[in-house]
Automatic annotation (TrEMBL):
Catalytic activity: [(1->4)-alpha-D-glucosyl](n) + phosphate = [(1->4)-alpha-D-glucosyl](n-1) + alpha-D-glucose 1-phosphate
The protein's name: glycogen phosphorylase
Organism name: Streptomyces griseorubens
Record family assignment: Belongs to the glycogen phosphorylase family.
Pfam family of the protein (one): Phosphorylase
Length: 872
């Protein structure tokens, strides 16, 4: 019989055990080994059955056991120690509090998904895991973030396989009362409510749940409440589900509703108001409009409000392809804003202009969330050096007249939260080497000094650790594979072969990620005979563990999964290659440590960062990857191997896959397996162990989320906070009026004449060239512009590469026609073909970049030709 109503019955803990509730409700337990060990000791079997979720555990422990623990002095002492440790963690000074200078009082961090723990399934892939690691690292560092997202009633989907290997989706309903969440409530105890106005006099209402992620509150908005109509209740039903209007409403709730939730939370708790708003991908871009509406209500006009909002906003793009960005029909967006819908004090046509693709190659009828995010942020970044370059090229149309390398999008390479992803066995080995405190600091803060001690760990200890992790993975794989086959309809009598799946002494390769086509799940199947030879080699075999989910609407991705599953079902190789369904955080935490090699073979440069290989590296796994994302930046032969790419513009996609698959097989056959199986005088694989050691000591500190968050604080958050403080109402009006004046007058800015002190086409290294430039400024003043000489090496087409800009200074008074003369020295500091040009940029103390307005004046061709080219 099916229940007609569901309740959550919470346990009543005996008074001495009350701290268990606080420990369970702070998600620090998900990365704090001591807290997890304490909960495991409550009831090891129930802990395992609860999937390592303290909330579920406490709901299942019998009263008798709780009573027993309440009288157990040893347990109560451990409980008090862990509770005291959490209190110290929550209140003590950490890295952020020890920094000098005026850091942001608070930062609001918006993301459509957060991967904190499997016990709070609100993530689908890398974006969410990154967001979760960002919050956890910020907590460890003491950075005052407020996370903002949505609470999806079905989360992402659960994955299983049909008998023939086709992905099937399941959407279990999540009860917020069973999750580690608390409702945000008003002072009178009533639930706090966020309301958005919809067309047709309708409303979208949401309550706010708070997940405590260490020191960081994570606000999750939930529209599944009785005050909403059926359609509005379903807005937060699924992550990345529904059609265009459904997605638009989700993103309006995340951005606009999220700002209102932050304001409400700060009002009710006394938390410092954010000085910086960080938009993690374009999904939350509407947050800038809500902040503009707040300022409009305070008396600023649209343009001044825009400048004030931009000053304190950071935008991070995660996609390397336009197809990965949310875009909406302009009419759909227009219908949801204005006098009869949301943000009535913002002009709809001005809102639309913020997101329209008004640049060559853009779709003029589409509203682009990333474009809006960039226009609403004074600071933007990609998530690896290569991705920063790709992003500058992809969005260069927003800054016409500038070379892609000058587009104001920097990069902060992603990192991963080591305490979450490092296996307890690895952590214990490190703690034994350098002590518990230093090991915790090494994982959370970084600092290579703490990682150097890996060099002192004996080879035998490293090899024994790697084998034990591989053995744990083998047991995990067999258990999951057996459950998967039962879901596929197999009987117990058919599954005896699973006891022989994988071998703890065989080189183990892992491949697990989302399954869009560019990640090439099935590249390993290009030459099945060669793959079989690798799997079944009599002396140097390999075994492969594969996992991943295709988007429910992506039948192409599902076909790739089915193709791999059918290969892995072959009785000849099924003991050497497996596909595990329902890839998620719980599986990943076992998978990364147990793999010797982490394989990644995307189409370069379509992997923005790709952090899974970082997690493997922190556990001593070596990377075997295409030079894309973070691997392009930090690859060294000490850390693994690079798969050569055939990414020339004229390469046929099939031929490219054939070439790169062949390169992958060659690496495995000739280098990877030989290094793993070759034994030195000690009987150990010396070269392999040395690669593991160097991966941990040299790569380990780089891939930390702690390093990533420190970079955000130093390079983006703090400058944004300073800009926010400088941009008071008067400054915002001043900047807006100045920009309008400059845009209106820019047609009168010209470079009329350029002359130099050297007439020949050659010059000596170290000499100095005197430049004299005549420019017309029209109605502008010298303080409104910067005149620059831009110099560097030139290619065969006289394009300047590796350019450096040198400001020139005005001399004398303006001429009769309003022309100004600028002069300055240009040092010839490099040999070879060398060239220069001159340009004029807008200049104002409140600009973050000279490219910010997308305005530049350069010499016309006749002036450029007369100026000449040096050192040919």
């Amino acid at each position: 019989m099916k229940a007609i109503r569901r309740f959550t019955v919470r346990p009543v803990l005996p008074e001495p055990l009350r701290p268990l509730s606080d420990l369970a409700r702070n998600l620090r337990w998900s990365w704090h080994t001591g807290t997890r060990d304490l909960f495991r000791s409550v009831d090891p079997e129930r802990w395992a059955a609860a999937g390592g979720d303290p909330m579920r555990l406490l709901g299942s422990v019998p009263t008798e056991r709780l009573t027993e623990l309440a009288g157990d002095r040893d347990f109560l002492d451990r409980l008090a120690a862990v509770a005291d440790d959490l209190d110290t963690y929550m209140t003590g000074d950490r890295w952020y509090q020890r920094q000098s200078g005026r850091l942001p009082a608070a930062v609001a961090y918006f993301s459509p998904e957060f991967g904190i723990t499997a016990a709070l399934p609100q993530y689908s892939g890398g974006l969410g895991i990154l967001a979760g690691d960002h919050l956890k690292a910020a907590s460890d560092l003491g950075a005052p973030l407020i996370g903002v997202g949505l609470l999806y009633r079905h989360g992402y989907f659960r994955q299983s396989l049909s008998r023939d290997g086709w992905q099937q989706e399941h959407y279990p309903v999540l009860d917020p009362h069973e999750l580690p969440l608390d409702q945000l409530k008003e002072a009178d105890g009533a639930p706090a409510r966020i309301t958005l106005a919809l067309p047709g006099d309708r409303s979208l209402r949401a309550r706010v749940w708070v997940a405590q992620v260490g020191r960081i509150p994570l606000l999750l908005l939930d529209s599944d409440i009785e005050e909403n109509d059926l359609i509005e209740r379903g807005v937060t039903d699924r992550l990345y589900g529904g059609g265009s209007e459904h997605r638009l409403l989700q993103e309006m709730l995340l951005g606009i509703g999220g700002v209102r939730a932050v304001r409400t939370y700060c009002r009710l708790t006394g938390h410092a108001a954010p000085e910086v708003f960080h938009t993690n991908e374009g999904h939350a871009g509407f947050l800038g409009l809500e902040r503009m509406a707040e300022l409009r209500a305070g008396g600023l006009d649209f343009d001044a409000a825009l400048e004030a909002v931009r000053a304190g906003t950071v935008f991070t793009t995660h996609t390397p392809v336009p197809a990965g960005i949310d875009r909406f029909d302009r009419e759909l967006v227009a219908r949801h804003f204005g006098p009869h819908a949301e943000l009535p004090n913002l002009e709809v046509d001005r809102i639309l202009r913020l997101g329209m693709e008004t640049y060559p190659g853009g779709e003029p009828n589409l509203f682009n969330m990333a474009v809006m995010g960039l226009r609403l942020a004074q600071r933007a970044n990609g998530v690896s050096l290569l991705h920063g370059q790709v992003s500058r090229e992809m969005f260069a149309g927003l800054w016409p007249g500038f070379d892609p390398e000058e587009v104001p999008i920097t990069s902060v390479t992603n990192g991963v939260h080591a305490p979450t992803w490092v296996a307890p066995e690895v952590y214990r080995l490190g703690a034994r080497q350098i002590g518990t405190q230093r090991a915790e600091e090494a994982l959370s803060i970084g600092d290579s000094d703490r990682w150097d001690s890996v060099a002192d760990i004996p080879d035998q200890d490293i090899w024994d650790l790697r084998r034990s992790l591989r053995e744990l993975l083998v047991l995990e794989v067999r258990e999951r594979l057996r459950a998967s086959w039962r879901q596929r309809g197999a009987g117990t009598a058919e599954l005896g072969w699973i006891d022989g799946v994988l071998d703890p002494d065989v080189l183990t390769i892992g491949f697990a990620r989302r399954v869009p086509s560019y990640k090439r799940l099935t590249l390993m199947l290009r030459d099945r005979d060669r793959l079989m030879d690798l799997l079944l080699h009599p002396e140097r075999p390999v075994q492969i563990v594969v996992a991943g989910k295709a988007h429910p609407a992506d039948d192409g991705g599902k076909r790739l999964i089915q193709e791999l599953v059918r290969f892995a079902d072959d009785p000849r190789v099924r003991h050497r290659i497996v596909f595990l369904p329902d890839y998620g955080m719980a599986m990943a935490q076992k998978l990364y440590p147990g793999c010797d090699i982490w394989l990644n073979n995307p189409l370069r440069p379509l992997e923005a960062c790709g952090t899974s290989g970082m997690k493997a590296a922190l556990n001593g796994g070596l990377n075997l990857s295409v030079l894309d994302g973070w691997w392009d930046e930090w690859f060294q032969p000490d850390f693994g191997w690079s798969i050569p790419t055939a990414d020339g513009a004229g390469t046929d996609p099939d031929r490219r896959d054939d070439i790169e698959a062949a390169a992958l097989y060659d690496l495995l056959e000739q280098r990877v397996t030989r290094t793993f199986y070759e034994r030195g005088r000690s009987g150990l694989p010396d070269r392999w162990i040395e690669m593991v050691r160097r991966t941990l000591s040299l790569l380990g500190p780089k891939v930390l989320a702690g390093r990533m968050v420190r970079e955000y604080v130093d390079r983006l958050y703090t400058p944004a906070a300073h800009a926010h403080r400088a941009m008071d109402a008067d400054a915002a009006r001043e900047l807006a009026e100045w920009k309008a004046a400059v845009r209106g007058a820019w047609h009168g800015v010209t470079v009329d004449h350029v002359e130099t002190s050297v007439a020949s086409a050659t010059a000596e290294l170290g000499s100095t060239l005197a430049l004299r430039v005549r420019v017309g400024l029209g109605s502008l003043r010298p303080e409104d512009v910067e005149v620059q000489a831009v110099a560097g090496r030139v290619d065969e087409e006289d394009r300047i590469t590796d350019a450096a800009a040198v400001p020139l200074k005005p001399v004398g008074v303006p001429g009769a026609g309003g022309e100004w003369v600028y002069e300055g020295p240009l040092a010839l500091d490099r040999t070879g073909p060398f060239g220069y040009t001159v340009r004029v940029l807008p200049s104002h103390r409140l600009l973050a970049s000279g490219a910010e307005l997308g305005l530049v004046a350069v010499p016309p061709e006749d002036v450029a030709e007369a100026a000449g080219l040096l050192m040919r």
